[in-house]
Structures are given as structure tokens and as C-alpha cells.
Amino acid sequence: MTALDRSHDPARTSWVTSAQGHRDFPIQNLPFARVAQGNTPGAIAVAIGDEALLLPPAFAAGWGNELPPGARSVGLSALNIFAGRPPAEWRAVRLALSDALSDPAWQERLRGALVPQAALEYLVPFQIYDYTDFYASIYHATNVGSMFRPDNPLLPNYKWLPIGYHGRASSIVISGTPVRRPRGQISPPAASVPSYEISRSLDYELELGLFLGGRNALGSPVPASEAAARIFGFCLLNDWSARDIQSWEYQPLGPFLAKNFATTISPWVITSDALLPFRVPMPPRGVSDPAPLEYLRVPDDRTIAVELVVELRTAAMRERAEPGFTVSRVQFDQAMYWSPAQLVTHHASNGCNLYMGDLLGTGTVSGPTPESRGCLLERTWRGTEPLALPGGEVRRFLEDGDEVVFRGTCRAPAAVAIGFGECRGVVVPA
Ligand code: CA
Q1: How many whole angstroms from 359 Cα to the centroid of ligand 1?
Q2: Domain boundary assignment for the chain
């Protein structure tokens, strides 16, 4: 495991004054995003407080001269090539950023490369060629399973392998993009034939996304001991789901059109290096649970201590200028049965080639209590326990105009807390 360095020092501060005590982006975080800038298709930026450091003008101002040539690929228009470089170069860039943003000698030269985040338009940070979604929270799997199979909620394979399906990369959108309510083939229990209509059971799924770095050749699995080093960074991910379409189409091959109409991700990629102080052991497995097969045994396996929050804000609440309602709050590191590294090593265990910029979703993050359930299907128990919102509205599933916001915060003793920013989307009519 990589050791902490001066970039994690809790005493380190930045000359960008808004970084001190910032909820998401103190100098200990330094996440990457891809932003639109004038006529250029994209530029990589680094969050510091309320500002963003644009890397092309930072390089032009002389920052990064000492970096290895390959590490300077962080200045290209998407993160794929940089994520394909060795992890030592990821750390070299992080240290160079941390040193410059903490050293007042750089303030004058880098001032022209700083822009307020509020003025930026964000783009998907990688060219994402493949997207896979898992099902790694045992509470989510148990809850959903018990709705359909009360006596036998977990299928026999669940504790042996991470369940997943291949999602669709083309419909991954950046936070803030409106999400159009889908239409699809729906077959209500009382109907004799299905019909093609507007989904009435639109839902969100609270997840983390893992962006991969490096690559393994087709036919070459990623050993468990090397899997963690393949994770470049993390984001928040909303796997929008149409439950009425899903319940009719999902057997026997799994989710399809119920999920591939939109997947929203947060713009800032929180790097694995920034998350080092928040690595914690996986929760212990049940005493009667099987030990993972050898290829799934990750040495010193860790997850991330991050609290995830779901907020819902209806159109009426926005009109009344009311804040969002906190629907759920869940600790990621206590919710998952399979670790991030296990998802990676399992995905490649058959020789599947994983490519830098590939995105893996963890699956809905649900904890043991009703208030920690990561989707409305569970939170309202298929609509049988509706949510009462503060202004008197009631929700079973999402209505048009509803806005869903995810946030994530990492905390650990002796570390400065860092956050993920926001993953936001509003539902617009079909
Ligand atoms: Ca999902």
C-alpha cells in the first residue's frame, strides 16, 4: 500500500483562501474534472476551494516543468491517457499540484489559471468506452430480493461472486443534465397484454463509480494483489431506473432498457491517492458465510469511509425556495459485501480486458436501516410506505420536476475531511 505523503498533511493550507475548511475541496483533495473552455473541446481542471485551476494555462505559466514527460499528459483534453500512465506519475502530478497551491511563491503566476467553479461547464471527464454496474451492497440485494422472494432473498451465487451486468456508456451524462422520463413496454399485474407507455415508477440508485486506470491485455486477468492499483479514482453515480419497465423485461438476462436511458455522474474525479487517509477494512463477513475463492482474496483489502447522502427537491419546493429533503444517509464502507478491488479482479478474472477510463458502478448503496436505503424502491418499499415531504407532498417514485442530489463526504481521525461535490439531475416530462 502506498504511504501518506506531504499532500495529505492536515496542517497544509493553500493560498486559495476558500480552500481552508472547504466542505469538499480543501488542498488535501485536488480532484480532476474536464471542463468546456471557449472553443476547445475540453480542458482538465483541478478543484481547490471554490476555484478551479485550469491545467493548460498552468502549464503555460511554468507549472509542471519538472514532471516526467508522460505525466504531462494530465494537460490533454480528457483523462484517459494520463490514467494509462503508471500510478507513480499520478502521484507526481498530485504532489506538484499540492506544492504549488500551498506555496505563496506560485500565487502570482497561477492567478490567471484560476476560474470560479460556478462559471464552469463540466463535461464527462473520460472518454468512457465501457460501463459495468455491480450489485455489491448486501442490504440492497437482500431488500430487493425479499420483495420478490420473501423466503429466499439472496440467490445462491451472491456470497460467492460480485453480481454485475454490462451497462451502456453512450448515455452516461454529467451532473446537471436533465433526465427525460423514459417510455417503455410495461405489463402491470392486472393487464392481459403489455403496452408501450410512459414509465410511472422512475427511481434513482445511489452508487459510487470507479474510474479505472492502466490496461490489461485480452486474456490476462488482473491478480487480486494488483486490483486496487487499477482504480484511478471515484465519483458519485446515479443509475436512474424505471421499475415498471425493469420488472417486465429483466428475466432472464437482467437490466436493459429500464436503465440505459441515462446514468448521471458527478464531475469531479476523487483520486485513489486523495482517498488514502480514508481507507478502512471491509466489514467482517458473517460467521457462516463462505470464504472468497482464492482469486477474490485481496491482500490488505480496503474500502473507503465515505458517507453518502440523497436529497430530493420537488418543483414546488424549488418554487417556495425550500431546501432539499434528506431522504437517505448511508455509510458506504458499512454497506458493501464486495470491495472495490474485488469488483476489478472479478471483472477481469475471465481475461476480460479493462481499459483506462472504463467505469464500474458499485450498485445501489443501502445500509441496514430504512433511512439508509439508496433508492425509492427500497425507501418506500415498492410504494407501500410513501415518503411524506415537509411541504405536504408525498412520493412513492419520482415525479416530473423532482431534482435528486447526491453528496459524499470522507472523514477519518487525523485527516482533513474531503468531499465528492454533487451529482444532480432533474426529471423532465417524457
Ligand atoms: Ca444499479
Answers
A1: 13
A2: 19-123, 131-428
pLDDT in tens, 283-302: 999 999 999 999 999 999 99
The CATH number of 19-123 is 2.30.30.230
C-alpha 363 – ligand 1 centre gap (Å): 4
Write out pLDDT tens, residues 219-254: 999 999 999 999 999 999 999 999 999 999 998 999
**Whole-model pTM?**
0.97
Mean pLDDT of 22-38: 94
Q: Which amino acids are annotated catalytic?
A: 140
CATH topology for 131-428?
Answer: Fumarylacetoacetate hydrolase; domain 2 (3.90.850)
Distance 1 CA to ligand 1 centre (A): 29
Q: Which residues surround ligand 1, an ion (CB under 5 A)?
A: 133, 205, 239
Residue 34 has pLDDT above 80, yes or no: yes
Where do the DSSP E strands lie in 178-337? 179-180, 183-186, 195-198, 202-203, 206-212, 231-238, 241-242, 263-265, 270-271, 279-281, 302-304, 306-313, 325-331
Assign 143 to helix, strand or coil.
Answer: helix
CB-based contact 141:205 (threshold 8 Å):
no
